[in-house]
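dude i think i finally got it to work??
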Amino acid sequence: MDIRQLRYFQTIIEEKQITKAAQVLHLAQPALSLQLKQLEEELGVTLIIREGKQWQVTEAGRILYERSSQLLQSLDSIKGEIAEIRKGITGTVTVGTSAICVSHLAPHLTQFHKEFPKVYVKIYNGDTHYLEELLQQHVIDIALLFLPVEGKQYEIVPLEEDPFVAVIPGQWEQRFPKDSISLEEVAAQDLLLVKRISGVGLYENILSHFHKSGLRPNVVLDCPDVSTILTFVATGMGMTVIPCSEIHQAYDGKFKVMTIWEPFLRAKPAVVWTKDKYMSKAGRKLIEFLTSNGM
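look at this
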């Protein structure tokens, strides 16, 4: 059993068909079938049961796939580390961020690029639930999101908390001439809120805060994307309550920003990555930038 055979077996399992796996590997199907047969004979077990169109991985096959995946990932990590030593800090870093956290990411990512111009950065956007899925699937190296997150498999570095503000359409300014607004006044307006696709987050915490004050806000729209929310605010559909750092994303002059009289929530952004995933030198450097003072 060698590394080449393990890669062949991994591809067969992932493609769920010898023919498709052979195409991916650029091999003839009989040659790939022979490699599988030789692997089964060497181990003395059946790895895949094939009866006509029925295709099933055995318990032994499942264990081999899991262990070989770990081994192959470790080998790829070793190759990556050796390449970094030879080439310096290069490669690709994949970063996931919610739309509401972009303002935390942008300045530090720009500075990171100036210092390490050979590093390619790929950005994924989504809410916290989606970004957690990408972390678990090892699609992204680092996520910048708002707490809370579920699971114990993460390294989490909390960043400076972000106060909430109320944002009203510009055409409402005569109705609200002051620079602050009460929770009771907010609850009486049509409210547009950011809400993650799944799980508990800012949306639920905001509603809970209102309920504890004996108020029932009139929520008429929710959306996971803060820029979409602000677009509707700018048109006069309603108002929103968002972290202060996100104000820059709205259209200039189309709305008014107001502080909230009563003590209110503070958003809790954090840099998150998976404990057991190999982190490249470029990834580690980017984490240093994102968690440095001034974030």
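The CA atoms of residues 81 and 96 lie 23 Å apart.
im so relieved honestly
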